[in-house]
Amino acid sequence: MTEPLTPRSADDPVRSVLFVCTGNVCRSPFAELLLRDRVPGLAVSSRGTYALVGQGMERQMAGQLALLGVGSDGFRSRQLQVEDLSADLVLVMSGRQRNLVLEESPAAARRTGLLGHLPELTAQVGDRPLNRGAVAAWTRASAPAGRDIPDPYRRSEQAAAQSARMIQEHVTALAALLRRSGTEDTAR
């Protein structure tokens, strides 16, 4: 993703979302593919802070995604690059990943938040459209403790199912916010 040529304002809707996890084979691709399915036309991508570059989605998480009717064929893990952080909304799976993102690009601070902190964004926005200003205000608030999405990599099927449920809950809420804001119409 690259920064648009025209200046963006706080009132502009969220048009691009980047999900970040560690290896980019479990949590962030699950979120990417699910949101892409739920909000067609939105620019959605995912990356890893220590990506297993070129690998497909991890088998158990791909299975969890398939249970929701979303395929993972063709997905390949990608390493996070500074230019990726120009997305309107960057959602990480852990506080540690947020710290790594901000070390790479301090300018991304007002666009980067914890996926598990999304209920506070939903409450803050209320019935208003989700825009860049709302995202910037939300990122200023501290995320409550215990909101990381656990990494299911090389763990049990139960761990994959738990992470998938958590991600699905947050992505479903985000998709509703984006659709209500007309993002799928403006992103095309």
UniProtKB/TrEMBL annotation:
Q: What class of enzyme is it?
A: hydrolase
> Which SMART domains has this protein been placed in?
LMWPc
Q: Tell me the domain of life.
A: Bacteria
This entry's Gene Ontology molecular function terms read: protein tyrosine phosphatase activity
Methyltransferase as UniProt keyword: no
Residues annotated as domain Phosphotyrosine protein phosphatase I: 15-177
Q: Which keywords accompany this UniProt record? A: Hydrolase, Protein phosphatase
Pfam families to which the protein is assigned, alphabetical: LMWPc
Catalytic residues, per the record, are C21, R27
Q: Cite the EC number.
A: 3.1.3.48
**Family, per the entry?**
Belongs to the low molecular weight phosphotyrosine protein phosphatase family.
Cite the PANTHER family for this sequence.
LOW MOLECULAR WEIGHT PHOSPHOTYROSINE PROTEIN PHOSPHATASE, LOW MOLECULAR WEIGHT PROTEIN TYROSINE PHOSPHATASE
Q: What is this protein called?
A: protein-tyrosine-phosphatase
